[in-house]
Amino acid sequence: MFISKTGFTNEVPEIPVLSYPKNGEVGILNLDTLTWGAVDGAVMYSLQISKSPDFDSLFFDSEVGFNFYQLRELQLGNIDFYWRVKANNGGNVSEYSDTGHFVSSIEAPILVYPEMNDDSISIAPEFRWMQVDGATKYRLQISRSPLFQEKYIVYDVDTITVTYHTPTPLEPKKSYYWRVFSMTDQYQGPKSEFRRFVTPDVTDILDEDGIPDQFSLGQNFPNPFNPSTTIKYSIPAANVGASHNLFVQLKVYDALGRKIATLVNRVKQPGNYEVNFDAGNLPSGIYYYKIEIEGFTETKKMVLLK
User: How far apart are CA 55 and CA 142, in angstroms?
Assistant: First the structure.
């Protein structure tokens, strides 16, 4: 005869019945909760989780005081897990339940660009992240708030099948936050970390008076300047692939080679462009601007004189 929470008993508790996740469920994440039916008279439960159906190597093996357990430190990446539970009424222990099986979610994307607190990128940058094994598409969210409340989300698309995306243009001189979810055809996977970036006060204007026949980077005008100046560059149609579009980066550096601003960072069609650079928050001195367009690179010097 044994003492339970309700008194003396010789009874063996019933075998728990697993509830969630359903057997064979996929896409299980950290902080998801395993649940099973409560057993009358049970004061605790023994929970085992393993990567092996034979439970010869245990991921979790401990007593649980309730009929649920929130998963922590679950290894993601389409990994098979098996779990079972037995009840304890303080005197006797039931047999283990039937074995449940679930598959952990694919992993979260790792963000590449823009970097955290990048303070001067294009108003329509090309966002990039690392490929996730098992992902068939991705969801990109851009928000004015790091909490990503619905009312602050300004861009949300979940049909991206590559690891880069250029959104519709954002507002200049604004702080934004971005994150990416990995997805499969069956479920939405975990989200990445979020990153903050700031759009610059720049304009990037296409002159449609003609298509140039060679790459070029013009001297900024005026030069010296205070506080803003205009930089012109050209992208030819010759020797370009079927899409006739090329990825363009135009960045500004100080005299020590430190990046000050990214004025352009996106795919562009052939044409003549001009972009404005506002150095209102920078000290007087010599600065350099450098353009890189898939095989063409050029750097020029400019002088900020306040």
Answer: 43
Whether residue 49 sits in one domain with residue 119? no
- Mean pLDDT over 270-290 rounds to 91
Domain count, the chain: 3
Rounded to two decimals, the pTM is 0.63
Residues 231 and 172 reside in one and the same domain: no
Q: What is the mean pLDDT of residues 262-281?
A: 85
In this structure, the answer to whether residues 91 and 14 fall within a common structural domain is: yes
Task: Give the model's confidence band at 9: pLDDT under 50 very low, under 70 low, under 90 confident, else very high.
Answer: low
Cross-sheet strand order for the sheet of 18-20: 18-20, 33-36, 68-70
Does one domain contain both 157 and 247? no
- Measure the CA angle with vertex 119, ends 113 and 124; round to 5°: 55
Tokens 């303070």 belong to residue: 119
176-204 pLDDT, tens per residue? Answer: 999 999 999 999 999 999 999 988 765 56
| Residue at token pair 């990153």 | 195
For residue 116, pLDDT beyond 60? yes
Domain holding 175: CATH number? 2.60.40.10
What is the secondary structure of the chain as a DSSP string? -EEETTEEE-PPPPPP-EEESPTTEEEE-TT-EEEE---TT--EEEEEEESSTT-SSEEEEEEESSSEEE--SPPPSS-EEEEEEEEE-SS-BPPPPPPEEEEEPPPPP-EEESPTTB-S--SS--EEE---TT-SEEEEEEESSTT--GGGEEEEEEEE-SSEE--SPPPTT-EEEEEEEEE-SS-EEEE---EEEE--S--EEEETT---SS-EEPPPBSSSBSSEEEEEEEE-STT--TT--EEEEEEEEETTS-EEEEEEEEEE-SEEEEEEEE-TTS-SEEEEEEEEETTEEEEEEEEE--
